[in-house]
Structures are given as C-alpha cells and as structure tokens.
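Reviewer 2 asked us to include a model.

Predict the structure of this chain.
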Amino acid sequence: MPSEHDWLAERFEEHRTHLRAVAYRMLGSLSEADDAVQDAWLRLSRSDVSDIENLGGWLTTVVARVCLNVLRSRESRREEPLGVHMPDPIVSREDGIDPEHEALLADSVGLALLVVLDMLAPAERLAFVLHDMFGVPFDEVALIVQRSPTAARQLASRARRRVQGAATVPDADLGRQRQVVDAFLAAARDGDFDALVAVLDPDVVLRADRGAATTVASREVRGAQAVAEQALLFARFARFGRRALVNGAVGVVTAPGGQPFSVMGFTVAQGKIVEIDVLADPERLRNLDLTVLDDR
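Predicted model (structure tokens):
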C-alpha cells in the first residue's frame, strides 16, 4: 500500500507538465523553470495537504510566486547593461516536436514572443501569462501580485497591448517556412547579398545573444541590408547548418565538428523573414539538449 508521501508524489507528477509550462513562459529559462517546479514540490511535501482544496490551483500559485520572485531579482540586478538576452530555445527534430516539449510549446510560444515577454515588468508578465495563457481568474492573479482584481486586470491589459504591438504572427505553414529559411541559407552560403535582401522583410530584426564571456558583443540589428551583411559574416558556418524546429517553428542548429555554435529561430510572415533570434552563448549552448537531433 503506497505511503502518503508516495500518494502525494503521484498527485504532484500529474501536474508537473502544466507547472513546467507555466514556469517556462514566466521565466524563458528551462533550468529556472525546473527549479521553480522543484521548489513547488518541496513546499508541497512540507505542507498540510488536508487544507488544500484545489491541488492544481495551489501548485500553480506557488510556482507563479516563485517565478515572480525570480523576475524581481533579475530586475534588481539590471543596473549593468545586459545587451541582448535570448530565452532558452526548445529544439526538436524537423519531423516533429518531442512529446515532452508539446505542453511547453502550446499556444505557439515562439522565441520572438518570449523576447517580448522579457520586456514586461514582472507583475505584468505574471498577469498576462496566468490569465491570457492559462485562464487563471483575475481574483487569483490579484492575490499573487498583492493588488486588487481591477489592478491585476490592468496589468494584463498593458501587457497584452505590448505583446500585440511587438509580436509578429508567423506563417503557420511549416513547408512555407522551410522554403524561406532554405533560401536564406542558400544565399548565405553563396555570399549572395541581393538574394539575402530579397528573402528578408525590409524591417527585419536580428537579435544575437553571444553571452557575457565572449569578446564579440551581443547585439540587435535592424533592416534588411544590415541583417544581410551580418548573414554574410555567418556564411562560412552556414554549410554546417541543420534544419530543426525551434520553439515549434523552422530554425537552424549550426554545429561545425559536432560542437554547437548557434541555434537560430526564424519568424516568417507573408513569405519573408521578419525576425531572427540567435543563441550563440557557448555556455548556454552546452546546457541545451540537442540529442533529439541525433539520427535515429
């Protein structure tokens, strides 16, 4: 007969996938999301569960509070210039998303959306994620952010306006995305500047996170000509590029000699590349699970 601890662990496991999805949207970091979920388990294991009427709601609240503290801690450390910071990408094989990642990527949580969420104030991000993505009532959001329900509604509304104003809705057709990304890679490999410009939206944005330890600064580049020039610098690595799904959209993982060099997420809209998000931080790349790309 299972012990009370075993019973509680089973109930917790039923909610783990949901909790990890909440934490990933809140933090944009897979390791910090896992830490937040583990923190929720530790708190649950030390709590009197007889007082908990809705275990899923209780756990979601705990994870949300942990994430809010992490976000506030990040904000307090932002005296130093951060440059471009890329959320953790979720990399899957080109032929389909790993089942473990499906819940994390529901609601089309692309890299570009996570970048926008990173620009929100902590309480705004929490209100938007919990209410707009997971349907948590504003009464419950208000308790977490210690505001009135009306104030919580306003937080989510402000966040929603910023997201709608900055996040591009990508083409849903993966086949069309592949054609555009393939054209980009071919033009980069050939050093064809005009072909690169042709496949880029005039207002394209390139964000590259190279990490704090590298001598080449992380940066944001705007405009088709400037982004095409950056792509030409990438040309010698382009032949090592392998298509993958990056947060559910067509992307490219570059690994010369089997060593990860970059993960690139593309946002394609109306047949043009409108955003390119690049993680090229060697330390964070080492922590990514890219074994899903291994040939089977």
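Residues 94 and 244 are 4 Å apart (CA to CA). The longest strand covers residues 200-209. We have added this to the supplementary material.
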